[in-house]
Design brief:
The protein is of the alpha/beta class. The protein is built from eight helices and nine strands. Strand 7, helix 5 and strand 8 form a beta-alpha-beta unit.
């Protein structure tokens, strides 16, 4: 797997993993005919002696991505996912896999985490120890007694504070996309490349006789079993979930934002692979 950048580099430390430019850099790429304005020191005199025209060397210049994670650390992320596993473990694994891929390519990764009360920022780094600190921060901040989520506020603050063009991964609870959030995503997408990762909610309905009890994260109240076993409520629940997912996917797709949904730890890597492939093949708006 790899993280693909669609936009061309415009600043020294931004751009694709490698981009050809004129002049000296790291790795030799090829030769081309000398043109007025080229540096004389870049002429390959041996190759020129074998040719009828002056030839200069071209090199591949290494570039770094700025990889930024925006992680929802509100109370909802302390619930369980579709698989019955903790959502925060899936979020941690997703961030860990992507951060590891990025640092293996020489990129630097940073992270914003937040809920409705405060936002924290982890500055950029490129080591495995740095990734470990990021993941431990996510683990510590997602708790049942944490404040609720406020993705609109988190995205607003990131859009204001994030200067350099970056590849942004948003890791969110399985939420609906309202108009204010839609506006902030568009604002981020205008300057950065944005990818969205939803951590799928658990099925609240009791579809099997052995279904375990379910408690609401907000308030800790158990959802009555007779409600969870109602066929009519199950139908309404399924339709509501499908509608929410479709609205989110449609709005993000219209903006050119690649999106993926992860429901289990075992499904994390396959889901990330599909997301990165979708992003790689997408046409940049």
């Amino acid at each position: 797997m790899g993280i693909h950048a669609h936009r061309k580099t415009i600043e020294l430390l931004e751009g694709e993993y490698s981009s050809i430019h004129h002049g000296r850099s790291h790795d030799f790429d090829d030769l081309r005919e000398y043109a007025p304005g080229d540096e004389v020191k870049d002429i390959d005199w041996k190759a020129t002696a074998r040719s009828t025209v002056p030839l200069i060397k071209r090199y591949i210049a290494s570039r770094q991505h700025n990889i930024v994670f925006i992680v929802d650390t509100g109370r909802g992320m302390a619930a369980v996912a579709e698989s019955g596993e903790p959502k925060k473990e899936i979020a941690i694994q997703a961030v860990g896999v992507l951060a590891y891929l990025a640092t293996r390519h020489g990129d630097r990764v940073s992270m914003f985490t937040g809920d409705e009360e405060h936002i924290d920022f982890t500055p950029a780094g490129g080591s495995e120890a740095h990734i470990e600190r990021m993941l431990r921060a996510v683990d510590a901040r997602i708790q049942l007694d944490a404040p609720g989520s406020d993705m609109e506020h988190l995205l607003t603050q990131v859009a204001r504070r994030l200067g350099h063009r970056s590849i942004v991964f948003i890791v969110s609870d399985d939420i609906a996309l309202d108009r204010d959030m839609d506006k902030q995503i568009a604002r981020l997408h205008a300057r950065h490349e944005v990818l969205w990762i939803s951590v799928g909610d658990a099925d609240l309905m009791a579809r099997q006789l052995s279904a375990p009890p379910v408690w609401a994260v907000d308030g800790g109240v158990e959802i009555p079993e007779y409600l969870r076993r109602s066929r009519g409520l199950q139908t309404v629940f399924d339709e509501g979930v499908a509608q929410r997912h479709e609205i989110l996917a449609t709005r993000l797709r219209k903006k050119g934002v690649s999106a993926g949904r992860i429901g289990s730890l075992d499904g994390t890597v396959p889901a990330l692979f599909r997301l990165l492939e979708r992003h790689r093949r997408a046409r940049r708006s």
